[in-house]
């Protein structure tokens, strides 16, 4: 497989175990590269359709981890009650489960 295709398709698993992959730079020593981050696509549910926006996707993505991108094809679709964001996750930290969003001061 092409290396870029493999890296773009992250995360990968083997026997239900997460594989952490990174592209090494010239001269980098593999044993000194920390393997602690991996990207994930995350579904964010219960977002009112009127609040779907790039700004909210970025804010929620940065709450979960480090925002990378969002799936624009889901934004504003009536049959979708969630948004998808791609985030960089630190695998040493527990996953965040919940975030309340206020709209005009109302939960």
UniProtKB/TrEMBL annotation:
It comes from the Eukaryota. This is DUF4283 domain-containing protein.
């Amino acid at each position: 497989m092409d290396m870029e295709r493999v890296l773009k398709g992250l995360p990968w698993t083997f026997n239900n175990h997460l594989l952490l992959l990174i592209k090494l730079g010239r001269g980098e020593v593999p044993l000194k590269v920390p393997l602690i981050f991996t990207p994930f696509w995350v579904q964010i549910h219960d977002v009112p359709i009127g609040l779907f926006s790039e700004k909210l996707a970025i804010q929620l993505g940065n709450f979960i981890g480090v925002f990378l991108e969002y799936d624009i094809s889901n934004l504003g679709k009536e049959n979708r009650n969630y948004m998808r964001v791609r985030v960089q996750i630190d695998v040493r930290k527990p996953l965040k489960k919940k975030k309340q969003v206020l709209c005009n001061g109302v939960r």
